[in-house]
Amino acid sequence: MEQVTLGEVADIASGVGFPKDLQGNAVGEVPVFKVGDISNAVKSGTRFLRSSPNHLCAEDARKLAATLMPAGAIVFAKIGEGLKLNRRAVLAQPSLVDNNVMALIPKAKLATSSYLYYFMQTVDLGTLSRATAVPSVRKSDVAELSIPLPSLCAQEGIVAELEKQFSRLDEAVTNLKRVKANLKRYKASVLKDAVEGRLVPTEAELARRDGRGFETGEQLVQRILDTRRSAWRGSSKLKEPKRPMAVGLPPLPAGWTWATMPQLGELNRGKSKHRPRDDAALYGGPYPFIQTGDVRRSNGAITEYSQSYSEFGLTQSRLWRAGTLCITIAANIAETGILKVEACFPDSVVGFVSDLGYPTTEYVEIFIRTAREGLDRFASATAQKNINLEVLEAVAVPYPPLAEQFRIVAEVDRRLSLLRAGEVQVDANLKRAQALRQSTLQKAFSSS
Questions:
Q1: pLDDT (average), residues 347-351
Q2: How far lies 294's CA from each of 10, 154, 267, 329, in Å?
């Protein structure tokens, strides 16, 4: 198989800069594509660029006619990070591209532009970058890339075989993604059923069947409050929690009641009083410092953290005990996780410590997950969305009897454990599919 340079089989061209007044037209004769359009095409699973939010009218396009790229040209970013550099797309019609995009226009030596497109899928353009700040590639470097060039008939055969194999692979990937979406819906259904009394038999049902009495959710809340008042007797510092607003709340299963988190335990913001927040003296010690990103990545159980406080850091913060429920109120609204170690966190995180401990903390965490979208609606319209402590204090929690909470939490854990195992398997298969795609491409263009 003959080896030639890319410059021998394709013209290499760059796009041009467009005045702002020529951009943003949704309707026009000539589409204009940018780096983001290439990325969007790849993410959506297509290789063709068919439509663009930017167009030029015929008169404006004529002024730039010399840079019009033909249909079938392979386009990619010539500047950006590695992932962006390695996304490819094919123009479905004659188009213009901006000056951050490079195009390969096949010559007669290629039987089909698809052969060049698939070859470019095997090339890591990031290795060609000479820039130190922002990765970028030059036309001369792209032109010197070596490409195997079999006969025109062989090229067509390679493309046909690749498309046959990739068609099967795409079907398998589509099925895997469908399974993943179904698992996500199943998870949401499990959580919703858990806080609406449909996941396990209710305590009222079991008590009626067994002919016995039981402590209702309302009685449990009253017991929590009575115990708290008794412990604080004689102190003026006890703050009586507000009851939930009953207006507009849906009906609950027998034995359940509506409660607020302050009725069930302590609800307070974290502390990080020292300024500036990035003072190096605060960090590097033995005390875990949990931030919003750590909560978001925790998958419900916070065991890892990206930063820690020193002794000085601890003096201006607070060490929350293991078992505390962390709820984010900035950036990512109402992401949750339960501390598995003692830790500090800033005022962008709210801590909830149940008077009863397990399983109420775990049950409330399950409820917050189901209410996340509703809580997000309380976020202020600022650059960084956030809710405040008062919003969380007023949230009405559907609260079941304690014995029922144990069963709910155990069943949610069991089902979500099985679900996570399924998700891990799906993700592993998706990675295998991607690896198989790359190995198939590499084999197709091997010169041996």
A1: 96
A2: 48, 53, 20, 13
